[in-house]
Design a protein that fits this description.
Length: 111
């Protein structure tokens, strides 16, 4: 979820700085070879409200929002991407229904 709570923001930013300093001080510690995404999820009462939250973030970061079931906006900072995202309620219901059989149904001959 996303928040603009000053205390949470301050702690998050301080954690990012500590991580960056730790990696700079310890060059043998590996980092992702293809970058990483910092993702915030919009949570509202409806798909429309969540999309409006993503649109607000899009305006703040200067990057358009787009997508269908996965509506998002992103801004790249080198190999690090900031992303605000919402996933439609219908997509989530469909995904949960499809996932409900995971581990229950197996192919013939497998045990």
């Amino acid at each position: 979820m996303m928040t603009t709570d000053p205390t949470v923001r301050c702690e998050f930013i301080a954690g990012l700085r500590r991580l960056a300093q730790f990696l700079a001080d310890n060059p043998k510690v590996p980092v992702p070879s293809h970058g990483e995404t910092v993702r915030v999820h919009a949570k509202g009462c409806s798909d429309e409200e969540e999309r409006a939250l993503v649109d607000q973030v899009a305006e703040l970061i200067g990057s358009p929002a787009s997508g269908g079931t996965h509506y998002k906006t992103t801004r790249d900072f080198g190999p690090i991407t900031y992303e605000a995202l919402t996933i439609s309620e219908q997509y989530m219901r469909d995904h949960q229904a499809a996932s409900s059989y995971y581990g229950v149904v197996t192919a013939w001959g497998e045990r």
